[in-house]
Design goal:
The structure is a homodimer.
Chain A lengths: L9 H8 L3 H9 L6 H14 L5 H8 L4 E6 L6 H13 L5 E6 L4 H12 L5 E5 L5 H10 L3 E6 L7 E5 L1 H14 L5 E6 L5 H16 L6 E5 L4 H15 L5 E4 L2 H13 L9 E3 L16 E2 L3 H16 L7 E4 L3 E2 L8
Parallel strand pairs in A: 1-2, 1-3, 3-4, 4-5, 5-11, 6-7, 6-8, 8-9
Antiparallel strand pairs in A: 10-12
Helix pairs in contact in A: 1-2, 1-3, 2-3, 5-12, 6-7, 8-9, 10-11
Chain A binds a DNA duplex (30 and 30 nucleotides) through helix 2 and helix 4.
Chain lengths: ~350, ~350
DNA sequence: CTCTGAGATGTTCGCGCTAGCATCACAAAC
DNA sequence: GTTTGTGATGCTAGCGCGAACATCTCAGAG
């Protein structure tokens, strides 16, 4: 418990307890046979000294690192923390531990973060998206480490993948909107060419509209700032340009909520005059004056499945290499049902 | 770029490029003098092979680990991601890298996470709060690693600290409320005895009210669920019990926003009939129909300062060991100004 | 033509720990 | 008494890399 300048080692504990380093190591790892008295002696000496094992040396010697790299674009929206929660929940029952890296939706940063993570030789990698730089893909391949690409199911995985089809999500939402009779449809989203999942939703969306001979009447994109406030502003801007819009599809729930608040303040009939829908199914929506129509992205479940795949690989168990979840639409109070 | 069963080492690169391992090491770390031609040769060989250095071995050999452990209670509310953003921003200009651990507000889990983190021998520790288990405190002391305790300034730090006084924050808010003439005051918060900062705010709050002979008229606590929805429910419950409440102080902005939405729907005059205030100054508030009164917790700045202290310690620079930031109240549209 | 020095490259050793085996003590079986 | 077995403990040899030092090479000075 005293402060020391250089860190304690197994040797310090072994000297303090009068047994070999090996025995101390065994006690601290609960490995092999150690007599109860020795165990006690060692544990009390370790505690006395305030010894914390050096995992760096341990990992090098044993060639095992109980870390799982989780690489995601952002922590600041609600979506990835929930994926993380799913991952943590599963890993907590194993020896594995998640370590998070954030890419800010930048491919080069993703590559850098991946490199950094791989240099610690983790037991597995969980990484968002199917789009990566050539180099990133090569690293994952060459690493020999199990990799699970998550969130998206529209594309080819390096190793394993767990996600939903965003293209399909866009199509399903478009179909529901058309079915409800809306005709003049606006799309509001983020100005992020690198958010491939939002892009795919939009593609699926317009594709289905096109089949009914409908085009998106208005679109608007934002970047930065408070999503709720941006949802307001964009909704206002779009309605000023095209007052006859009868539906607005938002690329995420947060801006959808902003739009909803704006329309309600203006006394506009939702969903009679204008229908609304978002995407993600965030918990926040429960507290809104009206429940926004949305589509659950199965975030927690994706985290759970991905972690299970990694955990299985570590134990040499074979598992599904590709899991596609099906998000369910929830109509809430802002999208008429047929 | 081909997949291999066991991981590549410096030796593989050295053989591929015809120079010694040491030279490869120097090239990859940009350390020491290496001729341009050799450098090229090595880099192309490394790239060809898809070699990723093993930081575990590197860290063991050099006794340096460029990681900073950041230990926080939660990722799911808006507050800690913003602290993290501040930390990352500063560390990005250094060789250091943040690694996040989450404690869920549980002291035992904090202790476990800390132990785990320290076993990787990071260059620094940034940890939320001043309250820790005896063992946790002992570990931090014994580690010889720079430690910055953040968010709170009401207490004793193990090593360094950066935060605000939550007691003072509660007092200042109480004073402003009294000054505006409110008398019948309710407090709504979280059911978390272990959230010491919320507790301290509440203590400061009641202390100042008491000096004016006022007691909190109603209180209500929640746990779990959507904060926005809980804010609604609790506000409704409290007003049903005591319809003459004229002010509600929420322990965070999210439940405050829920309350605000509820009151507006009910057509209640805010802040005429009932005033409201939250805590944190989250960005979300900008999109609300009215700006909620709140107090900025200086989250980003705390992250920045803490990271700066760690960065300075790593370079053996001396710095301030205790930084107390002063949050500013913002009256928004829900708290009358004198 | 030799010497000098600085840049370029190589060698040795050990970081703290664990796998894999060797060894030891002691009790029960013969 | 000797053997055998079993649980407890110790020893040795690296894991892959980098610090520190040793060595080599070659241009320019003398």
């Amino acid at each position: 418990m005293t402060q020391n300048n250089r860190s304690l080692t197994l040797r310090d504990v072994s000297e303090a307890s009068g047994v070999s380093e090996m025995t101390v190591s065994r006690v601290l790892r609960n490995r092999g046979d150690v007599s109860a008295t020795t165990r006690e002696k060692v544990l009390s000496a370790a505690k006395e000294l305030g010894y914390v094992p050096n995992k760096i040396a341990g990992a090098l010697a044993s060639q095992r690192v109980n870390l799982v790299a989780v690489i995601i674009p952002s922590l600041s929206n609600m979506v990835f923390p929930e994926v993380l929660a799913g991952v943590s929940q599963v890993l907590e029952d194993t020896e594995l531990q998640p370590v998070v890296g954030v890419t800010d939706y930048l491919p080069e940063k993703e590559e850098k973060v991946l490199y950094e993570m791989l240099s610690w030789r983790p037991s597995g990698v969980i990484i968002a998206g199917l789009e990566h730089t050539e180099a990133a893909r090569a690293m994952m391949n060459a690493s020999g480490i199990p990799v699970v690409e998550i969130m998206d199911a529209d594309g080819e995985a390096v190793d394993a993948m767990v996600g939903i089809s965003h293209r399909r999500a866009g199509r399903v939402m478009a179909a529901s909107i058309l079915e409800a009779g809306y005709k003049k449809i606006a799309f509001l989203g983020t100005k992020m060419p690198l958010d491939h999942r939002a892009r795919k939703r939009f593609e699926g969306f317009t594709e289905t509209l096109a089949k009914s001979g409908i085009e998106v009447a208005e679109r608007e994109f934002y970047s930065g700032g408070s999503a709720l406030a941006k949802g307001r502003e964009m909704t206002q801007a779009v309605l000023e340009r095209s007052p006859d819009i009868d539906f607005i599809y938002y690329s995420n729930d947060m801006i959808g909520a902003g739009g909803l608040l704006y329309l309600m303040e203006k006394g506009i009939d939702v969903p009679g005059q204008i229908g609304l829908a978002g995407f993600n199914g965030v918990e926040l929506l429960q507290g809104l004056p009206r429940r926004l129509a949305t589509m659950d992205a199965c975030r927690r479940e994706i985290g759970v499945k991905a972690a299970e795949i990694i955990a299985a690989s570590v134990n040499d168990n074979v598992t599904e290499k590709s899991v596609t979840l099906t998000p369910k639409i929830s109509f809430g109070d802002t999208l008429l049902r047929k």
